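Following up on my earlier thread - several people asked me to post the actual chain instead of describing it. Fair enough. Here it is, all 123 residues.
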Amino acid sequence: MSTDLVVLRDYDNQLMNRRELQVIFRNVPGNINKKEAIETISKANKVDSKSIIPIEIKCNKGSTDVNAFFHIYKDQNIAKETLPQYISMRLLGKAERKRIIDEAKAVKLKEKQQTSEKGKSKK
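Reply from S.P.:
Thanks for posting it. Predicted structure:
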């Protein structure tokens, strides 16, 4: 099964320092995952796959085409600054994602305990 890539829109967003790419993957009836889509985009545009962030990948009922929307950043640090954390966490594996969430929960719990200890000492 061959994958054809059709670019619907390629917009260079100067304000956000990124390219916004809207594409259609032809003849891929729901069989493409994020990593394969990123690889295809990076080969077609000759950019590093780490700088590509998939924003939306959706299939239409009754069609073999997949519509997708990507952001291509010039630098990974810019992507971390502008995008919400949950979008960048989509690209991580389940184990690494769980580890990051657990660390964030531990930090919040520590802060909560410290504030409750301060409140007790004032009384």
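The chain has a mean pLDDT of 87. That should answer part of your original question.
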